[in-house]
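Reopening this ticket.

The earlier resolution said the output was attached, but the attachment link was broken on my side. Pasting everything inline this time so it's all in one place.
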Amino acid sequence: MLFKLNKSVSSSYGHLATIFFIMATCLTLVRGVFHDIFGENYLIYLGPLVMPVGILFFVFMVRVIKNLGVDKRFVNVTLGLLVVALVLRVTTVLIIRGGHLYMVLSSISSSLLIIMQFICVYFMCHNLFIETNPIKEKLWASVCVYFMIASTFGTLYSLLLTLNPQGLGMPLSNPADIYILGLVYSFNVVSGIDPVYDHASETIRMTAILESIFSMLFMVILIGRLLGSKD
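Inline output:
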């Protein structure tokens, strides 16, 4: 079987949602406070805080997939994509910060993370719509899938900003800033508030429209599924 019921699934979803909320708080509120206090040097203080939380987020993501009872081959593929992507990402942040090699390695890292997160979203959605799963598990799963949509598009924005560092209407030279602002912009889109960056490129803005469509479509399907669960 591709899926097996697992008693630890609900707790795994809960842990993933909690870690994501902490990460979102660090990248929005805490980042804003640090930027106001330390100016352009805020990454020196924010980086050590965000990096462990980000790694925990991806680790908990793989844990959810494993506890869903997904075939071990998919779990190993997901874990392999994560490890390679994180190694490349750390390399581009700490060692190679510019030039053609940086762009190649960063693009590969973002692409692998997008594939990895897409796999996770697929299996989470599959589990979410299993009729026999308890409502508690479905609620936690819906929260995690919604967060995962934002995270996946955040990685996509990071890829676009790597290829065009001025995609948000301002020059970005620090790789860590590119990765962080990609997620921040994605959170801005799914929140539904006015764009924080008014001068984003056409590609970024069109991608934001696509993200809005995906997130709204997920909400519509989820509500329809829950309301029609007894049919």
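Reporter confirms the inline version is readable. Confidence is low (pLDDT under 50) at residues 1-6. DSSP finds seven helices and no strands in the chain.
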